[in-house]
Amino acid sequence: MTLTVAVEFHGVTTIPITSKKIVFSSKKGNKITVRDVIKELLSLEPRLGGKVIDPSNHLLLSSYLGNINGEKFIEGNEDEMKNGDSLIVIPRMAGG
């Protein structure tokens, strides 16, 4: 089964890449972890390494937060994502 997820960037996270939203598919079944999503994201956008993502452990850098579907902030990178989910990446100092 192919699973499709999106990663959305808000605030300064858009600096290293050209798109605010990246959609990709995985053939890992009907659920994947945030770690899987971050690994795939790093392979698609290597410029995020060291700026948004720590490439050594596939975690967001401490200056960023991840949220799944606008409902749950991630803790680490073992949270599960399902088909159609979005991982929203925002800087901790987002303001309005």
Describe this structure in words.
There is one protein chain. The longest helix has 11 residues, at 34-44. The chain has one domain (3-91): Beta-grasp domain (Ubiquitin-like (UB roll)). A five-stranded mixed β-sheet has the order 2-1-9-6-7, covered by helices on one side. The protein is mainly β and 96 residues long. Strand 6 and strand 7 form a beta hairpin. Helix content is 11%, strand content 38%. The chain is built from one helix and nine strands, in the order βββαββββββ.
Notable characteristics:
single chain; 96 residues; mainly beta; Ubiquitin-like (UB roll); five-stranded mixed sheet; two-stranded antiparallel ribbon; 9 strands; 11% helix; globular
Overall tally of domains: 1
Task: Give a count of the beta strands, DSSP E runs of length 2 or more.
Answer: 9
Number of helices: 1
Q: Sum up the overall morphology in one term.
A: globular
**CATH architecture descriptor text:** Roll
CATH fold-level name: Ubiquitin-like (UB roll)
Structural class: mainly beta
What is the highest CATH level, the class?
A: Alpha Beta
Over the alpha carbons, how many angstroms does the gyration radius reach?
12 Å
Oligomer: single chain
Largest sheet: 5 strands, mixed
Question: In which order are the strands of the major sheet placed?
Answer: 2-1-9-6-7
Tell me the helix content. Answer: 10-25%
Mean pLDDT: 88
Order of helices and strands: EEEHEEEEEE
CATH superfamily: Beta-grasp domain
Rounded to the nearest angstrom, the distance between the terminal CA atoms is 40 Å
Low-confidence stretches: none
